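Sequence in, structure out.
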Amino acid sequence: MYRRNRCSLLVQHGRRLTAAQHHPLTLPDCCCVSQGGQLLRSVMEKAAEGTAEKGTNVAVKGEAALRPEFITTKEKFHGYIDSEWQGTKGEKASDNGAAGETKETCVDEPEAKKFKPDPEESTKEGKPDGKRLRGQNKSRPHKKPTTYDEKRLCLSVIKDDRDCPFGDKCHFYHDVAEYLASKPADIGESCYLYDTFGKCSYGLSCRFAKAHTTPDFQTMENTDLIKAHEGRNPVKNSLSKDLQNRLRKRSVPFKKSAEYLKTLPNNGDKKTQQRGNGEACATKVSTDPAGGAQHVSTEAETQLQSCPDKQPPVKTVGPLTDVDIIKLRPCEKKQVDFRDKLYLAPLTTCGNLPFRRVCKRFGVDITCGEMAMCTNLLQGQQSEWALLKRHESEDLFGVQVEGCFPDTMTRCAELINTNTDVDFVDINSGCPIDLVYKKGGGCGLMTRTRKFEQIIKGMNYVLDVPLTVKIRTGVQEKSNVAHKLIPEMKDWGVSMITLHGRSREQRYTKLADWDYITTCSKLASPVPLFGNGDILSYEDAMKAKETGVSGIMLARGALIKPWIFTEIKESRHWDISSSERLDILKDFTNFGLEHWGSDTRGVEKTRTFMLEWLSFMCRYIPVGLLERVPQKINERPPYYMGRNYLESLMASQNAGDWIRISEMLLGPVPNNFNFLPKHKANSYK
């Protein structure tokens, strides 16, 4: 009785004392504690003071467990970062006036997000905060890269010094000396484009122009390197001007899409929709909503509706070929072996082509472009088509499209099938953002099964490559629907399913439900099902593979540590050094300059995407500093000192310190530069 009451008293005051701290308490002491509790408080305060004096680390819920000698406070951490930066870089930066402006050019960090309390945790006392979890993308400053290069050198001078077609109306520089007087200083002595390809197409506007410019302002060329890369196109799927103009004029034919869409019941004809499956009719009459004309579906279209994979008979002229007799069956489409592969998730903003090239170097098997809106692709928007670009190093590459209607999605699939080189097409049915969901796309498709079915069957009908789908567990947190959809998607013709183990309401809070993913993987068999969620180490990956999934998809884990693909394939923890991580950023910088350009616009665009990536990469904790290996993705890194200054700088959560890292690779930021990350961590709880 005494031991039970004594233990209960110790727990009630916040923490259980150790055995050594229990010993001094005798029976009379315990009676005093039960009467007033003052002695217990004094003992606990002394124990806490002793713990603080010894410097031992008391584990905090939600924080990663680090070795005590590396843990520090926020004030000491930032004081060390600022003092060391001024000491090592201050002299050089002060000449350019950049060191003192680094903190001024970045926007202050916003307040931490206010979390919605769990129903179990919320009490009746007081009204809980009704504000929803929201990002900061809408309120952050938006500046285009063109802002930093207001007046450029005319393209006619850069290319071949020909006459400008705009003449006196041209707004750009034509006098080289005048342009060079206003151009920012060069960043470095060597140009990656010139050293790699033998020629820099940006000429005098390149921020590394000294490496390939003669004293008389002529651009040099390396003929040997030019011949070695002659006829080679490292980037595919670019939008041609001819296709863009035809898309804008709506003159691109979508024959296969039209064939399929004719078989769908018209939304304007409610009587046709209300007919039962048992009622047979040879012909179906529907009303065209545009002109009010009636359309009589033929027997061939009725057959196509019952079996969309079968094409209707087409009148042809000429010799009879095998194509006329033997139609392409779904099993004869291009086959892709998805099993036992590592899949880099399509990541908005951060999953750009240079980042995917970095991940390919570390061993990722499957890559996918960023989510593209089908309507923007059909309109020929250059910025949206840029998301479909594929580098030659991406041997297994797909594109992800988002839409909410069968007509636009089917036409978009046919457009991609005809004009791009991809290995598969993925439907985004897991996007949680309001902009997409409220229109019926993303997670909204999971609740619109009829439209979802029409979209999948229509895209399958026009594609020659496999069609995959990415979904979440459901929309509401405690109402999973994926297990109901997966058997239906198997019948609709999906080649692979990716399941993120969270609902739309959860976003990225709480842990992914891998038990539910296990259940769904059994339902999906024999269709491959990839699991996604909370994988940050090879141990997490091994546990995920034990659930029976066909493969694993990595998203935030790849952003925090892109070398995770090497760790998984080699089954080890990689205690990567800060200099090796800086080399990874150098590779990204070079790939970015190749992709976006080496002029001022390209440099600042590369810097912006690097800073977005650093907002994730700073969450990585080196293996050698951890008290317990491995690091978990939902554990917040406390303030800690690295083993050297660079490691400490890379651990900073301050956007100003990320800008300092970018200045080490891309030179000083412009005077009017500011940055605030698009993604703010929402997974720590």
